[in-house]
Amino acid sequence: MGVNQAPSSYHLSSPSSSSSSSSSLVFLLLLSISYGYSYLFVRKLERGFPRVIALFPVFYTLFVVPWCFPTSMLLRALSSFFLSWISSFKLLLFCFDRGDLILCKSYVEFVAVAGLPLKIKVGVSSSKARTLGVETILKMLLISIPFSVLSFHHAVLTFLGLLLGCLGRIVMPHLDVVPILNQPYRSTSLQVFWGKRWNRISSDILRRTICEPTREILEGFLGINLGKVVALVATLVVSGIMHEIMFYHMTCGMKPTWEVTKFFVLQGICMALEIAIKGFWTRNLRQPPLHPLISVLLTLSFVLVTSYWLLVLPVWRISGRACNSEGYGVEVVENLLHVSDRYI
């Protein structure tokens, strides 16, 4: 693709300050154009597969945007999760007139809900006055001060990020942040842990895009109970695949080991066994449920052991990786950097 003939200053393996700025600019331009195209054009199409087909370029764009951060595994992971995964699934719901994106009344709202962990609160008056008090500003300063240990630049960025978040709540009070955790240490079963208490952002989007449609289809063939179990397992399998894509971005396109997928497949199988054993224990044997303390200990022990085995160890092996020019996703963004430096 002509990347090898490019000047060394453009290589993503050793980016200069100008190339880093270009990467950020390309990142913002790609998102602005993609969401603008979705909001202004795609929403006018007939719902269903016409919208899905029209959004193929956007899905591809959201898949490659993590390569805009070649030197930061953390930023690649965050952009992969919130954009390549969550935002793509939100747009998929949008294709069928489902989800929060269909409630957005402006382009700014659409971008905020599509790219950030936000949801629209129904029944909240947008005319309710809100102010940014001195106490709030002082709290933001106190939160930002520890980042000055790294650099003044990090502290300023942290403060500005918090300030923009507060201003956003004032301007758009009907938007609410989706909580990530809900006391996972109180989970009495795998079903409760993955469905209600851990990573509510992904569990909510998976429930609406995978679990509910799959269950509705399978209940007519397998019955209500078995259809529900199979839908739960299928949801965790999809979750494993999406986590594998995150690892693909984090490792700069390294060949997948499928350990993450194995982890979620294992969780899904064990969840199905858990539901079956609980039903046999209470209905057939007529025994009382286990004490909540015992259930919590069993659930958390299983999750922690399997997480260390199939999640933590793989992350340790890839920590600190920086991208080079390998992988088609990196090449795409690298070519965009050349275009941005030439015409912008």
From TrEMBL:
The keyword Transmembrane applies. GO terms for molecular function: O-acyltransferase activity. Residues 179-265 form the Wax synthase domain. GO terms for biological process: lipid metabolic process. Keywords: Acyltransferase, Lipid metabolism, Membrane, Transferase, Transmembrane, Transmembrane helix. It is a multi-pass membrane protein. Coiled coil: none annotated. The keyword Membrane applies. The chain crosses the membrane at residues 20-42, 49-67, 73-96, 149-172, 229-248, 260-281, 293-311. It holds the Pfam family MBOAT_2. Residues 1-21 are annotated as: Disordered. Signal peptide: none annotated. Residues 8-21 have a biased composition (Low complexity). One of its GO terms (cellular component) is membrane. Belongs to the wax synthase family. PANTHER family: LONG-CHAIN-ALCOHOL O-FATTY-ACYLTRANSFERASE 1-RELATED, LONG-CHAIN-ALCOHOL O-FATTY-ACYLTRANSFERASE 3-RELATED. This is Wax synthase domain-containing protein. It comes from Carnegiea gigantea. The lineage of its organism: Eukaryota, Viridiplantae, Streptophyta, Embryophyta, Tracheophyta.
